[in-house]
Amino acid sequence: MACIEARGLRKAYGTTMALDGVDLTVEEGRILGLIGPNGAGKSTALNAILGLTAYQGELKVLGRDPWTERDRLMRDVCFIADVAVLPRWIRVSQALDYVAGVHPRFDRTKAEGFLAKTSIRRSSRVRELSKGMVTQLHLALVMAIDARLLVLDEPTLGLDILFRKQFYDSLLNDYFDRSRTIIVTTHQVEEIQHILTDVAFIDRGRIVLDCSMEDFERRYLEVMVSPEHAAAARALGPIQERQVFGRPIMLFDSVQRDRLVPLGEVHTPSIADLFVAVMGEGAKSQGAAQ
Amino acid sequence: MNAQSSTVPEFGADAPASAPAATAPTRPLYWSIRREFWESRSIFIAPLAVAALVLLALLVSAVRLPQGVRLLEALDPARRDAIIAGAFGMAAFPITITTFLVAVFYCLGALHNERRDRSILFWKSLPVSDLVTVVSKASIPLVIIPIVTVVIIIATRLIMLLMGTAVVAANGLSLAPLWDHPPLLQLSLVPLYGVAVQTLWYAPIYGWLMLVSGWARRAPFLWAVIPPLALCLFEKIAFHTSYLTSMLENRLTGSDAAAFVDGGPNAVIYKLAQLDPAKFVATPGLWIGLAIAAVLFAAAVWLRRYRDPV
């Protein structure tokens, strides 16, 4: 059974289609990066998966309909929206008490263990913590829950690079164990590229690319073309060409590696570069990919 | 992929799902109510502060008490009882007003604050149903605040009684006016009954406030207050009648008249015989109010359940 199965998922806000027929399957044990410009429908898709918003079409998360079974589903699903959602009045100890009280799969000892590695005091209120500490606290709560799906919507928004790195490191080292599934959206694509097993691009409510990282690496190649081979390279039909330090860099889709090697330096493109290529100039002007 | 994953036992795909998740269904409710205590400490602090202020004022005024008791001794017993009951009632009045205001503002924030600060996304990421959440919030004005009110009133009155007894005895005066009618039962039963009656009577008010709290994007207080007042004004101007106004007035101040013999908005309740539960239960307004309250609370659950959270 797939962790998430969406067929023809639609959601309209007035006349705007936030989701316009999304088909997406996420198997268990994957780490999917959902990448898209602002307003592409990322958050709407995640909200539908979490049972926070109504939708048309078919959607099953861990075999359940999230809209009708949200509270039951949340025993197996965790969610970090961004740093702002922990209530500011709550004390760290109260947050631990509450989650331990209502969540049957919460392991308090584990959460205390994660917190012991931080400088967060039990008696502090969330409003007294820095942005980075609030994220650490939320992550400690979530990682102590034996959930099967973790949804991260811009989890590191507004954090400095140290906290961002630490966040994904603990996620990988202390949490991910191949039986869990993680979906993450972020604008800092390059920072998570190495942890993803799958990537999906979403634009104007549609999935425009959906592949595993193995396929990604097999399919897309970036060549820093030597100037004398530029014409030959262009003949192979790059999906994008840009200039860096006067040298053309071309991105190829499904072109044999051995045909590209003679033309210049071949390497795997960054997700961000492919994103720009796939979304075209429109995406760049919206300032989404970096 | 990561160094530790090899040391972590590999679960079968459905192993975590089959792990026992046995929790009593009341546990989420219990913890949700405790959460409300943490968030809204004014539920306890405000009435306690008012009670302390009342007691402090009485302590200061105790210098005049012996003189007052001498005057009381000269009066006929019925008047005397009424005056003493009035004094105790005066102590309860500021406490009930305070807890009513606390309940009003609690309700207005109950389903609004979590949307304003987006913490609803955190609450909704936990396995707690919207029904349990709204029930836990509704239980604050309907159960918790009334209990707090009764306990604080009774405690305040007991301290008053002890203070009065001490002062009167110290001045070598007769304790008869204070203790002629055993006041303990009356001191505890009247507030218990009075607060229960008031809570049932106000239930639709709390339901309305909570529904507006879950519905209004901003300024829930204005949305809760101005539309009813506007309707009253409309009725007055358009039809020269004021049915709506008197209905609202009755809802705000009519509970004593419906539940006590000779009970009006300003009446003094000084005898247990004035308690009239039979009359109260037979009041149609009580049941109409409760039915409306049920609809309003159900609508609040529906809103939290089906509305996009932020």
Structure, briefly:
The complex is a heterodimer of chains A (about 290) and B (about 300). Chain A is an alpha/beta fold and about 290 residues long. Helix content of chain A is about 35%, strand content about 30%.
What does this structure look like?
The complex is a heterodimer of chains A (290) and B (310). By secondary structure, chain A is an alpha/beta fold. Chain A has helices at 42-49, 70-73, 92-102, 108-116, 131-143, 161-175, 189-192, 213-219, 230-235, 257-260, 271-285; strands at 4-13, 16-26, 31-35, 56-61, 77-80, 149-153, 181-185, 198-203, 206-212, 220-225, 240-244, 247-253, 264-267. In chain A, α5 runs parallel beside α6 (161-175). Residues 283-290 of chain A have low confidence and may be disordered. Chain B is mostly helical. Chain B has one domain (41-306). Chain B has 15 helices and no strands. In chain B, α10 packs across α11.
Strand content of chain B: under 5%
Please state the average pLDDT score of chain A.
Answer: 87
Helix content of chain B: over 70%
Gross geometry of chain B? globular
- From the structure provided, what is the oligomeric state, counting identical versus distinct chains? heterodimer
Largest interface: pair, residues per side: A-B, 51 and 44 residues
Shape of chain A: globular
- The arrangement of helices and strands of chain A along the chain is EEEHEHEHHHEHEHEEHEHEEHEH
Helix/strand class of chain A: alpha/beta
What structural class results from the helix and strand content of chain B?
mainly alpha
Number of helices of chain A: 11
Q: What proportion of the residues of chain A is helical, as a percent range? A: 25-40%
Count of domain modules of chain B: 1
What pattern of helices and strands is seen along the backbone of chain B? HHHHHHHHHHHHHHH
Number of beta-strand segments of chain A: 13
